[in-house]
Specification:
homotetramer, 4 helices, Substrate Binding Domain Of Dnak, Chain:A, Domain 2
């Protein structure tokens, strides 16, 4: 049903969106919210960027490459921030972000 | 990682989002675009509503029930419109929409 | 250019979106982020809901009333949370949210 | 309340979003929808990109420059497509898009 080349990338974006939205929520429930401020900010932006990229691929946008390039940049920043924190939700989010960054980077190439 | 009660509903929303975005694109590529105008309009709105609902569940929003209620209404309207058209993408979209409407309706109850 | 009945409501939604996004950012930069956690959560949801409602009115969606009803509920919750905090950005945000809630409520009626 | 440097660009994005969403709706109501297919597709993408860019500036995102760069590209494509059509909504949309493209381009520089 979908452009086969996009399938893996859409999947990575949707998994990253889920990990970021969950991490956003979990960070807001942590005791030391202040330490998580950058994580919260980037989780929101990364989740929304991934949703935007998934939509672009699903609708066969003429801007898929440029959108995936930007998505890769934002995922990478979010993954690097999340990686600094020991919380399980941050570590899982870092993994999803960095994987998505890599796949989006290939899509953009 | 995610509230277990939400998992099925998030999955249905993301599948409906994908079906709607694909149908939006495919309708725009049909020969008789005019006949597809309502489908195109509802595909956009339904895809975006499903993304919004998935985000709300993933981030454990206090408005999940009300958001899923609205999502069910929009999915139902989109599914009923898509059902009228014989194109494969419309039939698949109708199925995803009506399934998502039902699951969102239960979530909202 | 736009349905005249929608103009005031679109304006209120866009002003509320701006106030919420600014408050989201400013809350994340406060010293006591933990106290602002609910505010941050609702700012995000309210900003995104207002953008969704503005889009629906601008594109003459068949779901404008139901969308504005939900938008009113979310704006009201966000406004009531922001009102509790003395920060200038929270007070301004509360004002924009409660005004938008009222106008969306009328639109939904 | 807002970073002064962003004000003009946010305003251009919100005006472009409105023009695109209105044009999306108006194109779907035209007699010859098929001729408007590319316009409809780009109107959706441009409106949503502009909303994303406005949000990024309002929340002081670290990715404002890159997001405005992408927004400029999408606005330019949408403006160039709209310019081809004589409908009043297309001409107005082209104007809003090309103005927004220029302002986003400066922001990205």
């Amino acid at each position: 049903m979908m452009n086969a080349a996009y399938e893996e990338c859409i999947k990575a974006c949707l998994e990253c969106m889920e990990a970021c939205n969950h991490c956003f929520d979990a960070c807001l429930k942590e005791t030391d919210v202040q330490m998580m401020a950058e994580c919260i900010r980037l989780d929101r932006e990364c989740a929304d960027m991934c949703a935007f990229a998934a939509k672009a691929m699903q609708a066969d946008s003429p801007f898929v490459k440029k959108i995936c390039q930007l998505c890769a940049d934002i995922c990478e920043a979010c993954g690097n921030e999340c990686k600094k924190h020991d919380h399980d939700h941050c570590q899982k989010c870092a993994e999803a972000c960095l994987k998505c960054a890599e796949i989006c980077r290939s899509m953009a190439a």
